[in-house]
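Example record

The entry below shows one chain as it appears in the dataset: sequence first, then structure tokens.
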Amino acid sequence: MIEILNGMHETINYGDSLGLRLYHNVDYEDYPDHWHVGMELIMPIEKGYVVIVGKERYELEEGDIILMNSGVIHALEAPPTGERIILQFDTALLYTLKEMETLLFMMPAVFFYRKDPQDELYCFLKEKLDRIIREYDGNSAFREASIYAALIEIFVELGRREIYQSGQGKQAQSMKQQEYLEAVMNACNYINRHYMDNLTLEEVANVSGFSKFHFTRIFKQYMNMTFYEYLNSKRVKRAEELLYNKEMSITDVAMNSGFSSLSAFNRTFKTIKNCSPSDYRKQGKP
């Protein structure tokens, strides 16, 4: 299934303009630790499958669904017989939609759902995945648009149920809370567009319409991190992508990620990733 592997990095060959590929995988083949830029969704339809992420071992049974975020290192173990759906897709389209970049940033490494006909969210995800499979295997008009529409619906539902209702982005229960949530999302969208600039807390607070002290409090409440932690994480995420280009120097990576100096880049990167940019590149990561 893995066609292009450089160290631990898999380059996904989508093969067409969809930016998406779907396998009815029946291979009796294990895949060692690897990562890719695209997201990956797996659902066994006959027998099970094993997904290993770090120290977590997810033993999937028929109908279980697992979704792995971009850049997550994982390994796969297959049974001697069986079939599973493996969907890989580029998140580029989602990034063009308001709020989606912030949602993707806030997502955990893995979403895992056991088959449960009584679970409303599981049933929703299964319905949308079945639709994607039908569209991908068929050749109907507007096939590509229909697939991405289903993906967008999936992420909207995950965002509402798993992110904003789960504590770090609590769904608004009043007009004032709704106002705060919208202000934080607008601030995140602003940061996502301007992270290369010399952003300040005062500037982003002004965009939100609150004083910097009030903004600091509500941003931490809804994002579970400070403004500067979010900004630095955004810059480090961009640096991870640039580090895959071995011809780009570490200094160039720093400057093209929004950092004002190499020392600030090295210090911030090590704080977030627990290793230097040079070591990160040597480890076979992007």
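Notes for this example: The two ends are 21 Å apart (CA to CA). The chain is about 45% helix and 20% strand.
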